[in-house]
Records
---
Amino acid sequence: ISHVKEEQEDLCTRLDQYDAVPPQTEEQEGLCSSTDRQDPEPQQIKEEQEELCNSSDLEDPDELIFCHNSPLEPKMSDTDTGKKIHTGEKPYACNYCGKTFNQIYFMKLHERVHTGEKPFSCETCGKSFSCNAHLKVHMRIHTGEKPYSCKACGKNFRSSDQLSVHMRFHTDVKPYECNTCGKRFHQMSAMKIHKKTHTGEKPYSCKICGKSYTQCGSLLRHMRTHTGEKPYLCSTCGETFTDASTLNNHIRTHTNEKPHSCETCGKSFSFSSHLKLHIRTHTGEKPYLCNTCGKRFTDLSALKKHVAVHTGEKPYSCETCGKSFTQKSNLTVHMRTHTGEKPYSCNTCGERFSLASVLKSHMRKHTGEKPYLCNICGARFAELSALKKHTAVHTGVKPYSCETCGKSFSRSDNLAVHMRTHIGEKS
């Protein structure tokens, strides 16, 4: 009879897409965060808010969890239950849609999809559920309990279903297909969110600026751009962020972790999205088209930068000096010239920098890495700018001209020195 109980247990714990956060698309990067990550303790309340929002987004009434620990459970012998499971007999039909079940209490639980009855309530946040098993898994959001562990990578999860969904990323199983474009997904919830890109549906709107989103969690994170709230703190440098995913991305600038490798050339990246963009340098794929001039780009951000050339639009302005920028990220970097903030620290010597790219260049002084190769003589350089200066020696190109006398130079600093001869300056 134990196998009957196991089958019932499996029905109870089949938490299809419940409380699972879908993977980010390239366009969503930085908006959504995975609430399965272990984040610092002070963020616990914010995580609960985001996950409660996300879980309500993704809860699917068609994928009901059957709970045998239910007040509806009938006084039925294990033998009777077992017979119906093996014979496939389903004598109990839903009064609303006609769907059939092998036990009456499964049918009663299913009918809650139609009636909206949710008798199980969370004492912490008040959220209600149709099934006790839903509530038990939900409570782990508040307690932080993650009893299910992935044997492949060690990541922990709140429910067996979350673990099952996660395992698909290791096996690359994508059972859910969009019937519009054929794209496949690891999760049904991710597929449903994707389908909104075809319908254009964005049901969650910001009451302040009117911007709309496909997910509640995305709206919640957007609201922080208005409030200025940045609850996620980097314990290394003290910089704060609006969401957990941006914090985790930032942390990799300190650890220099690069878990994503290109199978073609072996180059490694901190983020899967960067690897995806890099692969296009091998394939030549440029999926983003400028509707004005027809030029194509490998990524959406490059297209947006380019479009600003046509429109001249610079919507992001510095409140201190008034300078405007085409991108918010450029404004953020510019603000550091006023604040003196240097969030990027060298783990070797402790020197700090305002830009991650400058830190990356600095690190080459310690490692001796010289990734830029002269194709003419084979000389290598730590910086791209140094390679360009060197290449001018071979080509004889002198792009920097003196407006006074017309003399040309291969380097801008040489031109600057020359200009002093006209104004009487001495170096």
Note: Residues 50 and 368 are 44 Å apart (CA to CA).
---
Amino acid sequence: MSSASSSSPPLQHRHAPRIPSPRALGPLPHGSPRGASDDRAAAPDRRIRPVRAPDHPDGAARPDLPERVAATYGAEDLSTVTAFTGGFINFGYWAWLPELAGRPLTEEDRLRSEQDLYRLVLDTVDRPRDRTALEVGCGRGLGCALALREFDFGAVIGLDAHPDQIARALEANAGLLSADPRRLEFVLGPAQRMPLADACTDVVYSVEAAQHFRDLAGFAREAVRVLRPGGQFALATFLARVPEAVRVLPELLPPYANGLDVTHLVDDVAAALDGAGLVDVAVTPIGDGVWEPYDRYMAERPELRDKWPRQYLTAYQTGLLDYYLITAAAPAG
């Protein structure tokens, strides 16, 4: 690992062991969430009503949204791309892949991998039924719905900087919003300036969104601000391993060249979280459950096998980047 900066010693964050698989490799049985209490009616209502960002009726991106991010999640709608079938827009976590040896991977397998990445992240936090969770970079809100359905939080807030994504989240989750509006809300706003009240949530999590954030230090400070004392933080995304990646990744992968993604060093991310006041920062590499299986899925499809996303495996194998699960906590008080 590289140092957090050229003028300071390496951050002594804890490197957790590699994780072989998410809990049970499947959804939690309905009605029996782990760690949940038995009486929802008796649980205190800790729901907050966040300040809403201004509406954008014309669907235009926020002024501070980078042009390539605005286009990718706006008119182009990355969720419709075959490589991200299912609408979750992540590379997936495929630790169960050996059980599929001998047969081609299906779109159902791809969807399961995307869901399992969420399960891996959400498995790191406690889930009493009165707790609120905030997803930063929620996209179409499918991960928020999974968090409610399988992990039974008291409420989930989905935050995204793109108005088109918020509109899609409202549409995709219309049934859930109608059935239980107190438990789910979608809010327009950037990660570094969340339009939310102080100490409004018990959990902040983000799944494959932080690679777009220009101001990671601002995101970290905001996470500390909105978390209640002792609250939990979990992030999963792909990050650069070495300083050389800042130069090489834009030559290898178009998203780094065109401004969609930012070449964040993993040590810099951990340092930003630590510097913002989060404690117990732990970094876990999980790329062995991401890149090779995802590449296999791409290689088995004629329409995908020659596409640039297959270069992520090259970047991983040459030590330029990895996929990480990073956890931390807010100070107890």
Note: The CA atoms of residues 31 and 152 lie 9 Å apart.
